Amino acid sequence: MKNKLLTIILTLSFLSAGELGGYSIFEYNNSAFEINRVYLQYTDNLSEELFLKIRYDVGRDEPGKDGKFETYLKNAYVDWDLKDVGKISLGLISTNSYSVQESNWGYRFIAKSVPDMYKFTNTADLGIGVSRQIGDFNLSFQALNGEGYKNKAEDETFSSYVRLVYGETKLKKNDGYNVGLVYNNNSNTDETLFGIFAGYSSKEKNLRAGFDYNVFETVGMTEQVVSAYSIFKYQRNEKVNILFRFDRYSQEDVLNSEVDKVLIGLVFNPIKSLYISPNVAMSSVANQDDYDNDFRLTFMFKY
User: Fold this and answer.
1) Residue 149's CB: how many other CB atoms inside 10 A?
2) What are the Cα distances from residue 101, in Å, to 184, 209, 300?
3) pTM for the whole structure
4) Per-residue CA distances from 281 to 32, 61, 88, 222 (Å)
5) What's the CA gap between 166 and 174, in Å, rounded?
6) Helix or strand or coil: residue 65?
7) Are 194 and 180 in contact (CB under 8 A)?
8) Which of 102, 104, 100 lies closest to 199 in space, CA to CA?
9) What is the pLDDT of residues 27-50, one digit of tens each?
C-alpha cells in the first residue's frame, strides 16, 4: 500500500498545471484511534470547456479481510461543458444520487448522507452523465455500469440514475433552499432507490436544516429511512457549530424492524483546514429509551 501511495503522489506531482488536494478523517471512537478515510485528488481546467478530476480513496479492507489500508481509484473523469446541451461527464464519475443531500447536511466527515450511509447507492461508477441548469432547475441523468467503482462490469446491462433539483444546490456555502428527488434503477441487482429531500440555509439566522426520505427496494426486502437535521452557529463563537440529526430506519421483510439513530455534536473550526468534532452517536430499537451510545472525537484536515 505504501508503494502504491508513493506512486500516486509522484504521478500527480508531475501534473503541476492543476491543483493537488484532498482531506483526511481521523477519529477516536471510545476505544482506539483510527483513520477513517484519506482522499488525494488532482483537478485541472484543461480548457474553458473541459475539466479533469482524478481522486484516490484510501481506507480499510472490507470486513472479513486482514484490515490493511487499501487504495482505490475513486474518480477519473472529464466534465465537458457544452453550452447548448449542458455538462457531459465521462469516465469514473460520482453518482448523482447523494451529492446535493451531502452538501445540505454538510458534515460527511462525521456522518455520511442517508443514501451513502445506508448503502442504498454506489457513490461512484463507470459511465456517462449529462446535467443541465434550466433556470432554478437542475436535471442530471447518468447511465452507469451498475457494479460500482471497485468492481469490473459483469454483464452488458446499464443502470440509470436520475436527479431533479429546484433551488440552490450548495447550501453549505450559499444561502437559499432546495427541494429535489433521486431515482436509481440498478439493472444488475434488481435494486431501486427513490428519494426526496429538502434543505434550507441562512447565514443571517445562523441556521442550516434539511430533510431526507429514501425508499430502497431489492428482491424480498424494502428499506426506508426518514432523516431530519439542523446545524446552528454558536453566536458567542462563530467558529463553533452545534448539530443535531435524527434518522429512523425501517426494514420490511420476513422480520420487520425499526431503528432510531440520533447524532448530537459540536464542530469547531479553530484554524483554516482543521475541523474538530466531539460528538455522540446513539442508536435504539424504535420507541424504546435504551440507547447504545458511541462517544467520538472526530477530526478532518484538508489540504
Assistant:
1) 22
2) 15, 11, 20
3) 0.88
4) 16, 23, 39, 25
5) 15
6) coil
7) no
8) 104
9) 998 889 999 999 999 999 999 999
Report which residue type is found at 139. Answer: L
Residue 209 corresponds to which amino acid? A
> Nearest 5°: CA angle at 261, between 64 and 279?
85
27, 297 in Cβ contact below 8 A?
Answer: yes
Low-confidence ranges of the chain (pLDDT < 50): none
Contact present, 41 and 23 (Cβ < 8 Å): no
Helix H or strand E encompassing 124: strand 124-134
Of 125, 115, 116, residue with least CA distance to 93: 125
Please, which residues have CB within 8 angstroms of residue 222's CB and are 6 or more apart in sequence? 215, 216, 251, 252, 253
**Which grid cell sits at 10?**
509522484
Burial classification of residue 13, based on how many CB atoms lie within 10 Å of its CB (0-12 exposed, 13-18 middle, 19 or more buried): exposed
> What is the DSSP secondary structure assignment for residue 119, as one 8-state letter?
T
Q: Which amino acid, 232? A: F
- What is the CATH number assigned to the segment(s) 2-302? 2.40.160.10
The secondary element (H helix, E strand) that includes residue 5 is helix 2-13
Domain ranges of the chain: 2-302
